[in-house]
Design a protein that fits this description.
The chain is mainly β. Helices cover about 10% and strands about 45% of the residues. It contains 16 helices and 44 strands. Strand 27 and strand 28 form a beta hairpin. The protein starts with a helix and ends with a strand.
Amino acid sequence: MKHTYLLAAAIGAPLLAHAQTAPTSAEAPAAAAATTNAAPASVLVTGSRIARAQLDGPSAVTVITGDEITRQGYKNVFDALNNQVQNSGFVQGADFGNTFTPSANTISLRGLGPNHTLVLLNGRRLADFPIAYEGTVNFTNLANIPSSIVERIEILSGGASAIYGSDAIAGVVNIILKKKAEGFDVNVKLGGTSRGGGAERRVQVTGGKQFDRLSTVFALEYSERNPIGAYQRDFMAERSGTPTNMLSRRDATVGRYIDPGATCGQLGDLFGGSVVNYASRTGNYCASNKVSPTYWSVQTENQSKNAFGSATYELDENTTLFADVLLGRNNTVNNTRGPSWTSNSLNNGYFLNQGTGHYEAWTRYISPEEMGGLSRYNRFWEDGAVAASLGARGIVPGTSWKWEAGYSASWYESKGKTPRALSNIDSFFLGPRLGTDASGVAIYAPDPARLATRVNPDEFGTITGYAESDDESWTHTVSASANGEVLQLPAGPLQLAVVAEAGRQGFTNAPDERINAGYFNLAPNTAVTAGTRNRYALGTEASIPLHKILTATLAGRYDRYEFAERDSGKFTYAGGLELRPTRELLVRANYATSFRAPDMNYIYKARGTGYYSSTTDHYRCGVTGQPLANCEFASYSPGADYVQYGSADLKPEQGKSYGAGIVWSPSTNFDASVDYWDIKIDDLVTNLSADQLLRDEAACRLGSLDIGSSLCADTISRITRYAANSPVRPGEIREIRVNPINAAQESSSGIDVSARYALRTTGWGTFTLRGNYSKTLTRRSKQFAGDTVRDELNSLTSSDWPDKLAASLNWNGGAWSSTVFATRYGKIPNSAQTDYLTPTTLVNASVVYRVNDRLTLSAIVNNLFDRIKHDTTGGWPNYAVGSYSPAGRTGWVELNYHFGG
């Protein structure tokens, strides 16, 4: 059986590709092959199902080897992908902080969003992470793949729906696991940060054995990571500017705080002795500049357990059976919001104080010293994942045709525990409710001393509890594929590939049933969100030699989806040209159409809530006669709350991409490539623009539009405001109701450049220099067809990288080897969105010593110069959140020992 068959997947997965980035060791076999003139006889490249004689094809493919993941300082598979130059989009990862998905990590190729990158494992689809990214779009989690079993990762840029179907708009990531191993390896890795916190421990055991016709591989991995809190970094251990309101009484009738007097001094030792009596322009209250840093994880605590097993069996010389399974269990802990209480928060935030006869709003933050430690208010996630496949592949006797048939399945579950205040918390601080006044406002007769009294750990346990969620997703696929020669043309054989697939996927988001029962101090309006859909596909691909130096590739595929009592079909096609005037030079071009079936979260969402980062209240600006440039109601942050509902009427998003490039490989010591890419998405699914709704509302209410029109009626019904005479927040936006529509358009274009040079010396070993650079040339979007095109590339509201450069220098001198890896990140807007942060370069370094054939020792340092990207323009936390890490320098030592053959 040929080696290439061992790495195929259940849908005829691609196996090898041109290495734009290559191993850091001295010319590992996979990379060396990519730079020689002679290619393997049977190689499949990501983006194609046809075996080819050359590794380079009509579309650029980048390879990250398993060796690189360690040598370039990558912590895991996600870290390796996140640092690739093609990954230019800003995403909220596990360490972002207050996010919908703190136990997951994803990427955004070309800045087009995590839902437009197709992620495959051994060429097979994985189940979506069961919780939608930012509460809106589905994506694939990259957090549970053990790096020890990764042979390589291939990244295809541009549309590939004609080969893989839905989602492959910005590109395809194919993570290929090892299929052969001899003996056993034990790997131990320990490390931490030089600034404190974030210690890491990992143990990996991998191995395999060949039993005549049976080949087996296994891997076990256990890892732990300690958290990093904001209080552990001096530049954000305290909040500058206005401190956080820790305890206050606000007289809503007169609009001023009631001075707490000596209370702040009595509680002065809380939050690390930082509580003070703070004088604001509307009165005094107890405040602390350490509340936010105390309750903020900048790196989650994590415990991960993963296992992988694979087997192939040669039934006969023409047929091979295969099976593999990947199991993962991931436990994540973070803390992004402490226990705070506001009186009557489920209604209007204030109550009628029977003792004073005034409407009042009371606020209280509970400190770690009171509740028995910071961990009493941690959030927990327990994730489980399974990916499995089985099938058979082989050769049709007497022909060149290869075939494969298989079944694959993937399942993901995420169970969350979020601390919440219980429904009795109002009575704990205010005493029993005495009824309501004529306006429906709750009446209490509270004792002010209760607000100022410390809460003890036992009391804390009676007013808080954990709301538990259970979210699940799954996918099943049955597929069959074949490829081979059809006829002989003058310039070579015409090759054809065909594929048929059928699959079913689904998800369930189940919130805690006690929320609707009134157990927690939460609005009782949650609902189970669930849905399924079926998909079917037929596809074909042809490789046509037009001339001895010119080859064309054509592909077409039809996908059909059935969901929510309706169906939707989409045909996509692709074409490519490869011109090889000499053996050393390749000129290539490609064009492809692509699509994405509507996100299941968008289709089936029952009710979702959240808030905008900032909001402009156009109506209040208009009413008060303030121009937007200096309106006090413009761009306030955090913005308005929103409620989102799903829509079963969505259409598929449609993509187009094209590119052209040159690859020059004059020798085994040097190669270079330059590629241009251009991607466009139409009918992009997006939620209704809150800003447009607020603009229309202002026009309707102020008379520019007919308030009796259907547009005004719909717009005004979507925006709920507090009453104009409300004692608290009069006239302010309470919530905005939105739903997804097919309306937006987005496009991106740019260039990728890569080069490699190897210098081989007789006495000093081999030096290898590599570089990869990606620059976005255009990035445009618009919300609706009639809108003005928005220049996202030069917008101060876009946090995507406009360019990234990655370069490495590797030296291999026999028993010793070393790598220095540097990444330069382009400019991005500052937190205040008033100017740009300067480009920044981060450097990783590693040293490896091979003691003997069995024992290898390594030392790895990330962020060698301990650079933190400070940004104080938007205030605390004083760094570029989500774009740069606040961890600082991180180092590890690693030991690997090989047993057996």
